[in-house]
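Record now logged for everyone:
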Amino acid sequence: MHQTPRQQSTREIVIDSARIRDLPAVARIQREAFRRGLAYSPVALGVLWLLPAATFLVARDAGTGEVLGNLISDRHRGNTRIVNIAVALAARRQGIGRQLIRELDACCPEGDVVLSVETENVTAQRLYEQEGFVRTAMLRDYYGPGHHGYTMKKSRRAGPASVTAP
């Protein structure tokens, strides 16, 4: 895991593996970032943290240690799947999501990277596109009735991206 501080805006950020003591802060960020029913509960975060196949990263302020964001991924069909990414409201638009994605690329280089995103979340889609992701499928009602999503994929191996197999 890379633990070198990174400068973005005026804040130095360190990306590293989540610790059990980080989970309450991650749960708070989840409640800020997602509407009711989509945010992971503290119990669900604990289960994800314990899974050996999961990669659970946090972005923290290098000076204060405050957790500012998280990224949770796993391995699925030979790819790296981003299950969840969230940044605290007060820390958004500072490049933290981008740093989390790039750290995932560095620590999980095998296969393509896939994720799902709500169609309404245009800001996140722009970030993902800037990081090399393309839309591969539409997911009707994926986030609840009337809340559609897209599957997005970042190809990291030779050959065209598949629309049918993330």
Q: What stands out?
A: The two ends are 26 Å apart (CA to CA). The chain has two domains: 1-110, 112-166.
